[in-house]
Specification:
Layout: H1 7-15, E1 20-24, E2 30-33, H2 35-41, E3 69-73, E4 78-87, E5 94-100, H3 102-121, H4 133-150, E6 154-161, H5 164-170, H6 177-190, E7 196-201, E8 204-210, H7 214-228, E9 245-251, H8 258-275
Antiparallel strand pairs: 1-2, 1-5, 3-4, 4-5, 6-8, 6-9, 7-8
Length: 278
């Protein structure tokens, strides 16, 4: 059927193709391109035609690469072209076929941006199932406001797992999710319904304790440590391994906002952590 087409008909079919095309001779020169590729490249097409890869600007040299992804800047956006390379029958060079994937790349970038924005608004830590950093501070703000208004006691505890990296190293094929699930159950057993716990950072848990003074917060830490000493850590290969923890405790004082309250808890935690043997 193709043999029955005239040269004019063949050229018309090629020009109507939804693919950009560029013919390179055996010397590596771009000796022809179809109208679609010229439209895509705009003025840059003149910098490629009848030139080899060494003769064109560096920004255009990827057009000559085999089976590559090409990024080209124009006045409005960065073009993304997917290249497929095929030899010409008879050894007369190679043909470069280009698919304009710019719109697909933009859609993927928008998708990734939406995912990042969704993560910013997520309130649950995926690994532990606890409230995350954002949710904790959203919960802590009204508690501090309530103490400021009614002068009610309020304490916070930052619990830091000092050897979480060692736990992960012993279980390289397992995420810390099982460990944090066990810790969540342990802490829930010790806390009241009004208390709030969540994952503050990679190796930190925050406990928000309304109607609790600093002395009672220290008593709670003692209870938690007793339970930790007998905690059955899941999927642990070394039975002698025990969690090492440090705590920062702070009670709300008149004039405290969330930042000042957390700062004092963090300072106490840092003092404890520095005293932990390496």
């Amino acid at each position: 059927m193709v043999g029955q087409l005239s040269a004019t008909q063949l050229e018309s079919l090629i020009q109507a193709s939804p693919l950009g095309m560029m013919l390179l001779n055996n010397s590596g020169q771009a000796i022809w391109m179809n109208d679609l590729l010229k439209d895509i490249l705009g003025e840059q097409a003149d910098s490629i035609l009848n030139h080899s890869v060494d003769e064109v600007p560096e920004t255009l040299q990827s057009m000559y690469a085999e089976n590559a992804t090409v990024y080209l800047d124009n006045d409005e956006e960065t073009l993304c072209l997917l290249t497929t390379t095929r030899p010409v029958e008879g050894g007369e060079g190679v043909m470069q076929f280009f698919i304009d994937a710019t719109s697909i790349r933009l859609i993927m970038e928008e998708r990734d941006q939406l995912r990042r924005e969704l993560e910013e608004y997520r309130l649950i830590d995926k690994e532990s199932g606890m409230p995350n950093h954002r949710a904790l501070f959203q919960s802590l703000e009204p508690q501090v406001a309530r103490s400021r208004r009614y002068q009610n006691p309020l304490s916070v505890i930052i619990m830091q797992i000092n050897n979480l990296d060692a736990y992960i190293a012993q279980n390289p094929k397992t995420s810390p999710a099982a460990l944090f699930t066990s810790l969540r159950y342990l802490l829930n057993d010790q806390l009241r319904w009004a208390d709030i716990i969540g994952r503050l950072d990679k190796n930190e848990i925050l406990m928000v304790l309304p109607e609790t003074n600093e002395e009672d917060a220290h008593k709670l830490v003692d209870k938690v440590n007793q339970r930790l000493s007998i905690l059955d850590i899941p999927e642990l290969t070394d039975a002698s391994f025990h969690l090492s923890t440090s705590y920062g405790i702070a009670e709300w004082h008149k004039g405290d906002d969330v930042g000042l309250l957390m700062m004092r808890a963090r300072e106490q935690l840092n003092d404890q952590t520095e005293a932990v043997p390496a």
